[in-house]
Amino acid sequence: MNAATPAGAPVTYAAAGVDTEAGDRAVELMKDAVRATHGPQVLGGVGGFAGLFDASALTAYRRPLLATSTDGVGTKVAIAQAMDVHDTIGFDLVGMVVDDIVVVGATPLFMTDYIACGRVVPERIADVVRGIAAACSVAGTALVGGETAEHPGLLGPDEYDVAGAATGVVEADGLLGPERVRAGDVLVALGSSGLHSNGYSLVRAVVRQAGWALERHVDELGRTLGEELLEPTRVYAADCLALVERFGVAGVHTFSHVTGGGLAANVARVLPAGLVADVDRTSWQLPPVFGLVQQLGQVPWRDLEATLNLGVGMVAVVAADVVDDLALAARDRGMPAWVLGTVRDAVEADLTAPDVVAGTKGVQGGAVRLHGTYRTS
Known about the structure:
By secondary structure, this protein is of the alpha+beta class.
């Protein structure tokens, strides 16, 4: 049987929508930013099949534990694409990944990234990676490799998504976590820079329903709506590790990274069974963007606090005798810090009350009781 004669021009990879030369140009544009994150532990430079990291330093550990995390940015990338601003989204990616590692006291060693796009625009991809590299420098971690994949037909020409993974290390006897938390401990809030990178499906739905343009100037925000929504995530890793180094594991018992699920759900994950944290909603003033989202969309407060960070990006669970000094040290490093609540035995707590959150993300640990009314401007 004779094969049918194909109609039309020959099909090439470029004709199918993949431009390998554009990918090479993107690498050339980004490689200096990536190299800037490399210390002597990184071998091989940019462009190899695998990133190499010299782990000789781990031989000095008595019992090194490796910590790893992976995450993405979620639908915040839609804001970056709509505004055609791509050099900040990397802070969101790095923050979501390395700040999960620091929760257990681990130092992030290296990170890799993955970008999927409908069409490689070298300058756009380079901007994304430059942002990732800049955030890695803030976190003190090396960006050792990555991948850019062109997916024509699956993603639109100007669409992309980003993901990343990082590996860190912590000495076993320096591991932070629920096992260190005791009744009488205090929760110290470390302020967020804004929405960070969670809850954007809710936020975008509110904005869409209200018919607001990203270019709209909002007086209470002091800038345009788009600029506020694109505010980069605060990267806490280096600051949290500095607090642990100063106050030790006797002072800092664990951290909670406030991401998807909101404040209470994430704090509950780092408390042991039998303890409850009382969180005072009146202890801080909500940044204007959160009140704006609530009012603009008439979002129920319970839904809002189960979705957004409401101004608290990280929580340190600390011994009572270091609270004042630790909060001052955090503020000296440029982070807003205040007492959020306290930890107590759950014997007399009604864990079925509507303001109590427990058993989230598959963790059967402690509980968080929210009380008071949020202060809005």
